[in-house]
Amino acid sequence: MKKLTKNIVLIGMPGCGKTTIGRKLSEILNADFCDVDEYIVDITGKSINEIFENGEEFFRDIESKSIKEVSYSIPKVISTGGGVIKRKHNIYVLKKKGTIFFINRSLEDICKDVDVKSRPLLKDGTDKLYKLYEERYDLYKSYCDYEIINEDIDKCISDILRYI
């Protein structure tokens, strides 16, 4: 079994499979797992939607602080929020102690699986998902160490395992 020497960091659109893949990877590798959004909920006692009521910038400040906190005890698998790439410093912190994987899943598949009402930035419907993808795709590509196409969870996991 492989032993982690760095964090495995998963980035990508909401609903691309980061959390599902991260949990399974952590089990396979016998490593800790941290979903940054869940961590934020735990430390604030508020849902992501409740935090977003104070504005996206307020949420992004908490997210940046949380990323610093979870990144510095290695090794672990980290699933980030879809907008983590909006602040370059987040990527700097994550790359310092980790390898970044862009989980790229088709928007059609995401739309079939995701309850957009549960995602604060998608509450206006699937059109917003396409707009976010257009805004974020180049950032995901430029910040990742590896791009993984997610058409199947198990194949995605085996692809990641080949790189670590």
UniProtKB/TrEMBL annotation:
PROSITE patterns: SHIKIMATE_KINASE
Keyword Cytoplasm: yes
Binding of substrate, residues: 37, 60, 82, 136
Major localization listed first in the record, in broad terms: cytoplasm
An example molecular function term from Gene Ontology annotations: magnesium ion binding
The organism's place on the tree of life at top rank: Bacteria
Catalytic activity: shikimate + ATP = 3-phosphoshikimate + ADP + H(+)
Cited Pfam families: SKI
Positions annotated to bind ATP: 15-20, 119
HAMAP family tied to this protein: Shikimate_kinase
Complex formation: Monomer.
Protein name: Shikimate kinase
Name of the gene encoding the protein in the UniProt record: aroK
